[in-house]
Structures are given as structure tokens and as C-alpha cells.
Amino acid sequence: MTPAHGCRSVSPRYPNHLKELALSGDSQLQVIIYSVHDDEVDAVLAAFHGARVASDYGLGPVPRQLEFGFVYGPGEVAAGSARTLADTLTNNTPSAAFVVWQDPSYPANGAYIARVPGVGDLETECDVHGTPVIPLRKVIPFFTTSRRVGWTRTEDNEAGQIREAAEVLDALAVLAKRLPGAARAE
């Protein structure tokens, strides 16, 4: 979904895609689909086929059916491939909640792109484990209690960006807990 459909987008504030395009090395890419409407599953599989996304880090077959919460990946791919796959999924499967990340390629961090329709999009850097990396200078203002209330009400400031990033990550955690076989909190 686009912001016009009620989905806030965090990606313009995290211009990682510019760094990603400047990288020259190949690195691993992974993708997890958390949910998608039944009528868009074929479009996800077509995107996987086009990007040679498979099981077992690119060594297994391209999937013929989609398993929510499964880590798929094409193996080593060119820098910028995370952005390309995320754009394809966003454009062709607007109901899909997903995470795409590409491992770092020296000297830059990797790319992390998450999307939860109705909640928002998050684009930032990540480490080799696919963990989002958000600069501390953006996090500190959020925890400044005297300013937190005012700052989190606007979207053109760093504290508001952190709140939106947290909402996307929280929504992904909720979706992950709903997957078959997920550990349940007692």
C-alpha cells in the first residue's frame, strides 16, 4: 500500500537505498513473507521466480507454494537486489507483510526493508544477522521525556521516525507470533 491507502512510509527518512546502489560487492539476501491475501500468493511466487529466490540460501528449489515465516533467499546477489525485490513485492502484492534484508558488503552495512500494510514501511541499514540498525542519534530524542510527547506527534522529526519504526517492528513481531509453530507466550 502507498501512503494514500493509509500506510505511513518511513523509507524516505532512511535513504539506505542510495548507499546500497553504491556498493559493488555481492552478499546474501533473505526474505520472509508474514502474510498476504490468497489472491496475491501467485504474485509473490512470481516475484521469487524472477529474483531466483529459493530455499536453503539459494541452493534449494524455487518454491511452488508459499510458507509464511520461512526464510527464503537466492544466495549471493548484487548490491541493490533487496530494494528491487522489495519494490516488486510492494507493487505486485499490496497486501503482503514482509521483510527483505541483504547482508553487509564491505564497507557499508546491509539493507533492511520491512512492510506491514496499514502500519507502515521501514527502510534502514542492518547487520549481518538482518537486525535493523538505527543510529543512536535518532533514538536518543525519543527517550527525552520532556520532549517525547510533542516530538512523537509529528512525522518530520527523528523521534517520530523512531516511533514509526517501532510500530512496524512491533507489527512484524505480532505477525510472527501468529505463524503456525511459533512459540506462544505463557
Characterization of this structure:
32% of the residues lie in helices and 21% in strands. α2 runs antiparallel to α3. It has 6 helices and 6 strands, in the order αβαβαββββααα. A hairpin with a 3-residue loop joins β4 and β5. The chain is globular. Strands 2-1-3-4-5-6 form a 6-stranded antiparallel sheet, with helices on both faces. It is of the alpha+beta class.
In short:
It contains 6 helices and 6 strands. By secondary structure, it is an alpha+beta fold.
Helix percent band: 25-40%
* End-to-end gap: 34 Å
User: Which spans of ≥5 residues are poorly predicted at pLDDT below 50?
Assistant: 1-23, 150-155
Q: For this entry, what is the oligomeric state of its chains?
A: single chain
Tell me the strand order in the biggest sheet: 2-1-3-4-5-6
The general outline is globular
Count of DSSP-assigned helices:
6
Quickly give the structural class: alpha+beta
The largest β sheet comes out as:
6 strands, antiparallel
How many extended strands? Answer: 6
H-E order: HEHEHEEEEHHH
- Give the overall pLDDT as a whole number: 77
| Rg on CA atoms, Å | 17 Å
Q: How much of the polypeptide forms β-strand, as a percent range?
A: 15-25%
What are the main properties of this structure?
186 residues, globular, alpha+beta, 6 strands
Question: How is the secondary structure organized here?
Answer:
Blueprint: H1 16-22, E1 26-35, H2 41-50, E2 72-78, H3 81-92, E3 97-102, E4 110-116, E5 120-126, E6 132-133, H4 136-139, H5 145-151, H6 158-177
Antiparallel strand pairs: 1-2, 1-3, 3-4, 4-5, 5-6
